[in-house]
Protein backbone atom coordinates (compact mmCIF):
# COMPACT_ATOMS: atom_id res chain seq x y z
CA UNK A 1 0.00 0.00 0.00
CA UNK A 2 1.46 3.34 -1.11
CA UNK A 3 0.70 6.36 1.10
CA UNK A 4 1.55 10.02 0.45
CA UNK A 5 0.70 12.81 2.90
CA UNK A 6 0.03 16.48 2.13
CA UNK A 7 -0.37 19.09 4.84
CA UNK A 8 -1.54 21.60 2.24
CA UNK A 9 -2.96 21.39 -1.26
CA UNK A 10 -0.62 19.13 -3.26
CA UNK A 11 -0.59 21.49 -6.25
CA UNK A 12 0.73 24.44 -4.26
CA UNK A 13 3.95 24.90 -2.25
CA UNK A 14 3.91 24.49 1.53
CA UNK A 15 3.96 27.97 2.98
CA UNK A 16 4.01 26.75 6.57
CA UNK A 17 6.83 28.40 8.51
CA UNK A 18 7.67 25.22 10.39
CA UNK A 19 5.98 22.34 8.61
CA UNK A 20 8.66 19.82 9.61
CA UNK A 21 12.08 19.52 11.19
CA UNK A 22 13.58 19.52 7.70
CA UNK A 23 12.97 23.27 7.61
CA UNK A 24 15.68 23.72 10.23
CA UNK A 25 19.09 24.16 8.61
CA UNK A 26 22.12 23.35 10.74
CA UNK A 27 25.38 25.12 9.96
CA UNK A 28 28.72 23.75 11.21
CA UNK A 29 30.76 26.02 13.48
CA UNK A 30 34.46 26.39 12.81
CA UNK A 31 36.52 25.10 15.79
CA UNK A 32 40.30 24.97 16.01
CA UNK A 33 42.02 22.08 17.73
CA UNK A 34 45.50 23.46 18.45
CA UNK A 35 44.79 22.76 22.09
CA UNK A 36 41.17 23.15 23.26
CA UNK A 37 39.49 26.31 22.09
CA UNK A 38 36.04 26.94 23.71
CA UNK A 39 33.22 28.08 21.43
CA UNK A 40 33.11 31.80 20.85
CA UNK A 41 30.32 33.89 22.36
CA UNK A 42 28.87 34.29 18.86
CA UNK A 43 28.80 30.52 18.40
CA UNK A 44 27.16 30.00 21.79
CA UNK A 45 24.44 32.54 20.95
CA UNK A 46 23.91 30.91 17.55
CA UNK A 47 23.48 27.49 19.15
CA UNK A 48 21.07 28.83 21.75
CA UNK A 49 18.98 30.41 19.01
CA UNK A 50 18.93 27.12 17.11
CA UNK A 51 17.79 25.26 20.24
CA UNK A 52 15.09 27.85 20.82
CA UNK A 53 13.89 27.51 17.21
CA UNK A 54 13.90 23.74 17.41
CA UNK A 55 11.91 23.89 20.65
CA UNK A 56 9.39 26.23 19.02
CA UNK A 57 8.99 23.86 16.10
CA UNK A 58 8.47 20.89 18.42
CA UNK A 59 5.87 22.74 20.47
CA UNK A 60 4.02 23.87 17.37
CA UNK A 61 3.99 20.33 15.97
CA UNK A 62 2.64 18.96 19.26
CA UNK A 63 -0.09 21.61 19.35
CA UNK A 64 -1.11 20.83 15.77
CA UNK A 65 -1.32 17.08 16.46
CA UNK A 66 -3.96 17.65 19.12
CA UNK A 67 -6.58 18.46 16.49
CA UNK A 68 -5.00 16.74 13.49
CA UNK A 69 -7.31 14.87 11.11
CA UNK A 70 -5.78 12.71 8.40
CA UNK A 71 -8.14 12.37 5.46
CA UNK A 72 -7.55 9.27 3.34
CA UNK A 73 -8.35 9.44 -0.37
CA UNK A 74 -7.40 8.14 -3.78
CA UNK A 75 -5.00 10.31 -5.74
CA UNK A 76 -7.02 11.22 -8.84
CA UNK A 77 -7.86 14.91 -9.36
CA UNK A 78 -11.53 14.14 -8.70
CA UNK A 79 -10.81 12.20 -5.50
CA UNK A 80 -8.59 15.05 -4.29
CA UNK A 81 -11.30 17.60 -5.11
CA UNK A 82 -13.70 15.59 -2.94
CA UNK A 83 -11.17 15.37 -0.11
CA UNK A 84 -10.57 19.11 -0.20
CA UNK A 85 -14.30 19.76 -0.26
CA UNK A 86 -14.53 17.68 2.92
CA UNK A 87 -11.60 19.59 4.43
CA UNK A 88 -13.20 22.95 3.65
CA UNK A 89 -16.50 21.91 5.22
CA UNK A 90 -14.76 20.69 8.37
CA UNK A 91 -12.85 23.96 8.70
CA UNK A 92 -16.02 26.00 8.17
CA UNK A 93 -17.77 24.24 11.04
CA UNK A 94 -14.88 23.69 13.47
CA UNK A 95 -12.60 26.64 14.16
CA UNK A 96 -9.91 24.50 15.80
CA UNK A 97 -9.36 22.79 12.45
CA UNK A 98 -8.64 26.07 10.66
CA UNK A 99 -5.06 26.21 11.95
CA UNK A 100 -2.47 25.52 9.30
CA UNK A 101 -1.56 21.85 9.29
CA UNK A 102 -4.53 20.76 11.39
CA UNK A 103 -5.85 18.56 8.56
CA UNK A 104 -3.68 16.35 6.36
CA UNK A 105 -4.65 14.85 3.02
CA UNK A 106 -3.25 11.32 2.70
CA UNK A 107 -3.18 9.83 -0.80
CA UNK A 108 -3.51 6.05 -0.93
CA UNK A 109 -2.82 4.22 -4.18
CA UNK A 110 -5.45 1.52 -4.66
CA UNK A 111 -5.34 -1.61 -6.80
CA UNK A 112 -8.14 -0.18 -8.94
CA UNK A 113 -5.95 2.82 -9.74
CA UNK A 114 -2.92 0.71 -10.62
CA UNK A 115 -4.55 -1.73 -13.07
CA UNK A 116 -6.17 0.23 -15.87
CA UNK A 117 -5.97 -2.15 -18.83
CA UNK A 118 -8.59 -4.64 -17.61
CA UNK A 119 -12.32 -4.36 -16.84
CA UNK A 120 -13.07 -3.96 -13.15
CA UNK A 121 -15.10 -7.16 -13.21
CA UNK A 122 -11.97 -9.14 -14.18
CA UNK A 123 -9.79 -7.85 -11.34
CA UNK A 124 -12.20 -8.01 -8.43
CA UNK A 125 -14.84 -5.31 -8.80
CA UNK A 126 -15.38 -1.86 -7.36
CA UNK A 127 -14.10 -2.79 -3.91
CA UNK A 128 -10.62 -2.39 -5.39
CA UNK A 129 -11.08 1.39 -5.15
CA UNK A 130 -11.74 1.24 -1.41
CA UNK A 131 -9.92 -1.84 -0.03
CA UNK A 132 -6.53 -0.20 0.64
CA UNK A 133 -8.16 2.93 2.05
CA UNK A 134 -10.22 0.79 4.43
CA UNK A 135 -7.04 -1.00 5.50
CA UNK A 136 -5.32 2.33 6.17
CA UNK A 137 -8.30 3.40 8.28
CA UNK A 138 -8.30 0.20 10.32
CA UNK A 139 -4.51 0.44 10.77
CA UNK A 140 -4.89 4.04 12.05
CA UNK A 141 -2.78 5.42 9.19
CA UNK A 142 -5.69 7.78 8.52
CA UNK A 143 -8.57 9.04 10.68
CA UNK A 144 -11.36 9.38 8.11
CA UNK A 145 -11.85 8.11 4.56
CA UNK A 146 -13.54 10.03 1.76
CA UNK A 147 -15.18 7.86 -0.92
CA UNK A 148 -17.27 8.25 -4.03
CA UNK A 149 -20.31 6.33 -2.79
CA UNK A 150 -20.81 4.53 -6.08
CA UNK A 151 -17.41 2.85 -5.49
CA UNK A 152 -18.33 1.57 -2.01
CA UNK A 153 -19.47 -2.08 -1.78
CA UNK A 154 -22.79 -2.71 -0.06
CA UNK A 155 -20.92 -4.13 2.96
CA UNK A 156 -18.52 -2.18 5.18
CA UNK A 157 -15.42 -3.76 6.75
CA UNK A 158 -15.79 -4.70 10.41
CA UNK A 159 -14.55 -1.86 12.58
CA UNK A 160 -15.70 0.94 10.27
CA UNK A 161 -18.85 3.04 9.96
CA UNK A 162 -20.03 5.44 7.29
CA UNK A 163 -22.37 7.89 9.07
CA UNK A 164 -22.04 10.81 6.68
CA UNK A 165 -22.95 11.78 3.13
CA UNK A 166 -22.23 15.25 1.81
CA UNK A 167 -24.98 17.01 -0.19
CA UNK A 168 -25.45 15.14 -3.46
CA UNK A 169 -24.35 16.63 -6.76
CA UNK A 170 -26.21 16.25 -10.06
CA UNK A 171 -26.78 12.52 -10.61
CA UNK A 172 -27.03 12.60 -14.41
CA UNK A 173 -24.51 11.36 -16.97
CA UNK A 174 -22.79 13.64 -19.47
CA UNK A 175 -22.31 12.77 -23.14
CA UNK A 176 -18.99 13.99 -24.59
CA UNK A 177 -18.08 13.82 -28.25
CA UNK A 178 -16.10 15.79 -30.82
CA UNK A 179 -18.25 14.64 -33.73
CA UNK A 180 -21.88 14.31 -32.58
CA UNK A 181 -24.32 16.27 -30.46
CA UNK A 182 -25.96 13.21 -28.90
CA UNK A 183 -25.91 9.42 -28.79
CA UNK A 184 -28.70 9.41 -31.38
CA UNK A 185 -26.52 11.34 -33.85
CA UNK A 186 -23.58 8.95 -33.74
CA UNK A 187 -23.27 6.99 -37.01
CA UNK A 188 -23.77 3.20 -36.90
CA UNK A 189 -20.59 1.43 -35.82
CA UNK A 190 -19.36 4.37 -33.77
CA UNK A 191 -17.42 3.41 -30.65
CA UNK A 192 -18.42 4.75 -27.26
CA UNK A 193 -15.80 4.36 -24.55
CA UNK A 194 -17.09 3.28 -21.14
CA UNK A 195 -15.96 0.96 -18.36
CA UNK A 196 -19.50 0.84 -16.97
CA UNK A 197 -21.72 -2.12 -17.82
CA UNK A 198 -24.66 0.00 -16.60
CA UNK A 199 -23.96 2.58 -19.30
CA UNK A 200 -23.10 -0.08 -21.89
CA UNK A 201 -26.36 -1.95 -21.48
CA UNK A 202 -28.52 1.18 -21.64
CA UNK A 203 -26.65 2.52 -24.67
CA UNK A 204 -26.98 -0.76 -26.59
CA UNK A 205 -30.62 -1.13 -25.56
CA UNK A 206 -31.53 2.17 -27.25
CA UNK A 207 -28.82 2.28 -29.95
CA UNK A 208 -27.91 -1.33 -30.90
CA UNK A 209 -25.91 -0.16 -33.93
CA UNK A 210 -23.30 1.44 -31.68
CA UNK A 211 -20.31 -0.30 -30.09
CA UNK A 212 -19.09 0.08 -26.51
CA UNK A 213 -15.47 -0.60 -25.54
CA UNK A 214 -13.81 -0.77 -22.12
CA UNK A 215 -12.53 2.71 -21.31
CA UNK A 216 -10.87 3.14 -17.91
CA UNK A 217 -8.83 5.85 -16.22
CA UNK A 218 -9.58 9.14 -14.50
CA UNK A 219 -11.54 11.94 -16.15
CA UNK A 220 -8.46 13.55 -17.68
CA UNK A 221 -7.21 10.24 -19.09
CA UNK A 222 -10.53 9.45 -20.72
CA UNK A 223 -10.81 12.88 -22.29
CA UNK A 224 -7.26 12.54 -23.64
CA UNK A 225 -8.16 9.21 -25.27
CA UNK A 226 -11.26 10.82 -26.77
CA UNK A 227 -9.22 13.69 -28.20
CA UNK A 228 -6.77 11.17 -29.68
CA UNK A 229 -9.66 9.59 -31.60
CA UNK A 230 -9.55 6.21 -29.87
CA UNK A 231 -13.34 6.42 -29.46
CA UNK A 232 -16.01 8.66 -30.94
CA UNK A 233 -17.73 9.46 -27.64
CA UNK A 234 -17.71 8.75 -23.94
CA UNK A 235 -20.01 9.16 -20.96
CA UNK A 236 -18.92 10.59 -17.61
CA UNK A 237 -20.72 11.45 -14.40
CA UNK A 238 -21.78 15.10 -14.52
CA UNK A 239 -21.11 15.36 -10.77
CA UNK A 240 -17.40 14.72 -11.26
CA UNK A 241 -17.12 17.23 -14.08
CA UNK A 242 -18.80 19.85 -11.91
CA UNK A 243 -16.47 19.20 -9.00
CA UNK A 244 -13.50 19.55 -11.36
CA UNK A 245 -14.92 22.71 -13.01
CA UNK A 246 -14.85 20.90 -16.35
CA UNK A 247 -18.45 21.26 -17.50
CA UNK A 248 -17.18 23.07 -20.60
CA UNK A 249 -16.23 19.61 -21.91
CA UNK A 250 -19.87 18.43 -21.86
CA UNK A 251 -21.58 18.01 -25.22
CA UNK A 252 -24.99 17.11 -23.78
CA UNK A 253 -26.53 16.04 -20.47
CA UNK A 254 -28.50 12.81 -20.60
CA UNK A 255 -31.90 12.75 -18.94
CA UNK A 256 -32.73 10.24 -16.22
CA UNK A 257 -35.14 8.60 -18.67
CA UNK A 258 -32.37 8.04 -21.24
CA UNK A 259 -29.68 6.93 -18.79
CA UNK A 260 -30.63 5.88 -15.27
CA UNK A 261 -27.64 6.68 -13.01
CA UNK A 262 -25.46 4.36 -10.99
CA UNK A 263 -26.37 3.56 -7.42
CA UNK A 264 -25.29 6.54 -5.25
CA UNK A 265 -23.89 8.48 -8.22
CA UNK A 266 -22.94 12.04 -7.26
CA UNK A 267 -22.74 11.26 -3.53
CA UNK A 268 -19.65 11.48 -1.33
CA UNK A 269 -19.39 9.27 1.76
CA UNK A 270 -17.11 9.72 4.77
CA UNK A 271 -16.12 6.78 6.97
CA UNK A 272 -14.27 6.41 10.27
CA UNK A 273 -13.48 3.69 12.80
CA UNK A 274 -16.34 2.46 14.97
CA UNK A 275 -14.45 3.22 18.19
CA UNK A 276 -13.43 6.76 17.24
CA UNK A 277 -16.14 8.98 18.73
CA UNK A 278 -14.18 12.17 18.08
CA UNK A 279 -14.00 11.55 14.32
CA UNK A 280 -17.57 10.26 14.24
CA UNK A 281 -18.76 13.54 15.75
CA UNK A 282 -16.69 15.60 13.34
CA UNK A 283 -18.04 13.92 10.22
CA UNK A 284 -21.60 13.63 11.56
CA UNK A 285 -21.66 17.43 11.61
CA UNK A 286 -21.24 17.36 7.81
CA UNK A 287 -24.02 14.86 7.11
CA UNK A 288 -26.79 15.78 4.65
CA UNK A 289 -29.67 13.61 5.78
CA UNK A 290 -31.72 13.76 2.58
CA UNK A 291 -28.74 12.44 0.63
CA UNK A 292 -27.97 9.77 3.24
CA UNK A 293 -31.53 8.41 3.05
CA UNK A 294 -31.54 8.37 -0.76
CA UNK A 295 -28.18 6.58 -0.86
CA UNK A 296 -29.35 4.04 1.75
CA UNK A 297 -32.43 3.33 -0.36
CA UNK A 298 -30.43 2.78 -3.54
CA UNK A 299 -27.84 0.61 -1.81
CA UNK A 300 -30.62 -1.58 -0.33
CA UNK A 301 -31.82 -2.20 -3.90
CA UNK A 302 -28.29 -3.09 -5.01
CA UNK A 303 -27.76 -5.41 -2.04
CA UNK A 304 -31.04 -7.24 -2.72
CA UNK A 305 -29.89 -7.95 -6.26
CA UNK A 306 -26.44 -8.96 -5.00
CA UNK A 307 -25.01 -6.56 -7.55
CA UNK A 308 -21.42 -6.67 -8.73
CA UNK A 309 -19.39 -5.12 -11.53
CA UNK A 310 -20.69 -7.91 -13.77
CA UNK A 311 -24.27 -6.81 -13.12
CA UNK A 312 -25.65 -3.79 -14.99
CA UNK A 313 -27.78 -2.21 -12.25
CA UNK A 314 -29.03 1.36 -11.97
CA UNK A 315 -31.13 3.05 -9.34
CA UNK A 316 -32.19 6.51 -8.25
CA UNK A 317 -34.13 7.71 -5.21
CA UNK A 318 -35.20 11.32 -4.75
CA UNK A 319 -37.68 13.49 -2.88
CA UNK A 320 -40.55 14.77 -5.05
CA UNK A 321 -42.37 18.11 -4.70
CA UNK A 322 -44.81 16.56 -2.20
CA UNK A 323 -41.99 15.33 0.03
CA UNK A 324 -42.36 11.66 -0.90
CA UNK A 325 -39.60 9.30 -2.02
CA UNK A 326 -39.69 8.21 -5.65
CA UNK A 327 -37.44 5.29 -6.51
CA UNK A 328 -36.60 3.90 -9.95
CA UNK A 329 -34.58 0.73 -10.44
CA UNK A 330 -33.17 -1.13 -13.44
CA UNK A 331 -31.33 -4.34 -14.18
CA UNK A 332 -30.12 -5.41 -17.62
CA UNK A 333 -28.06 -7.84 -19.61
CA UNK A 334 -24.67 -6.37 -20.67
CA UNK A 335 -25.57 -6.57 -24.38
CA UNK A 336 -28.72 -4.51 -23.79
CA UNK A 337 -31.09 -7.16 -25.14
CA UNK A 338 -32.94 -7.32 -21.80
CA UNK A 339 -33.66 -4.27 -19.68
CA UNK A 340 -36.05 -4.58 -16.75
CA UNK A 341 -37.29 -1.52 -14.86
CA UNK A 342 -39.56 -0.81 -11.91
CA UNK A 343 -40.48 2.07 -9.63
CA UNK A 344 -41.85 2.75 -6.15
CA UNK A 345 -43.24 5.70 -4.22
CA UNK A 346 -43.66 6.19 -0.48
CA UNK A 347 -42.74 8.23 2.61
CA UNK A 348 -39.28 9.81 2.72
CA UNK A 349 -38.40 7.84 5.85
CA UNK A 350 -35.42 5.49 6.07
CA UNK A 351 -37.32 2.35 7.07
CA UNK A 352 -39.98 2.83 4.38
CA UNK A 353 -37.40 3.67 1.72
CA UNK A 354 -35.33 0.57 2.44
CA UNK A 355 -38.43 -1.63 2.33
CA UNK A 356 -39.44 -0.09 -1.03
CA UNK A 357 -36.00 -0.65 -2.48
CA UNK A 358 -35.78 -4.26 -1.33
CA UNK A 359 -39.25 -4.95 -2.69
CA UNK A 360 -38.24 -3.45 -6.04
CA UNK A 361 -35.14 -5.62 -6.09
CA UNK A 362 -37.10 -8.78 -5.36
CA UNK A 363 -39.55 -7.92 -8.13
CA UNK A 364 -36.81 -7.55 -10.73
CA UNK A 365 -35.09 -10.70 -9.54
CA UNK A 366 -38.29 -12.68 -10.08
CA UNK A 367 -38.96 -11.09 -13.47
CA UNK A 368 -35.41 -11.78 -14.63
CA UNK A 369 -35.70 -15.48 -13.90
CA UNK A 370 -33.40 -17.92 -12.09
CA UNK A 371 -30.60 -18.08 -14.66
CA UNK A 372 -30.29 -14.38 -15.46
CA UNK A 373 -27.84 -13.31 -12.75
CA UNK A 374 -25.87 -16.55 -12.92
CA UNK A 375 -25.32 -15.89 -16.63
CA UNK A 376 -24.10 -12.35 -15.97
CA UNK A 377 -21.66 -13.41 -13.23
CA UNK A 378 -19.98 -15.98 -15.48
CA UNK A 379 -19.36 -13.52 -18.32
CA UNK A 380 -15.72 -12.87 -19.23
Automatic annotation (TrEMBL):
GO terms for cellular component: chloroplast. Pathway: Porphyrin-containing compound metabolism; protoporphyrin-IX biosynthesis; coproporphyrinogen-III from 5-aminolevulinate: step 2/4; Porphyrin-containing compound metabolism; chlorophyll biosynthesis. It comes from the Eukaryota. Keywords: Chlorophyll biosynthesis, Chloroplast, Plastid, Porphyrin biosynthesis, Transferase. Its cofactor is dipyrromethane. Tetrapolymerization of the monopyrrole PBG into the hydroxymethylbilane pre-uroporphyrinogen in several discrete steps. PANTHER family: PORPHOBILINOGEN DEAMINASE. This is Porphobilinogen deaminase, chloroplastic. It comes from Coptis chinensis.
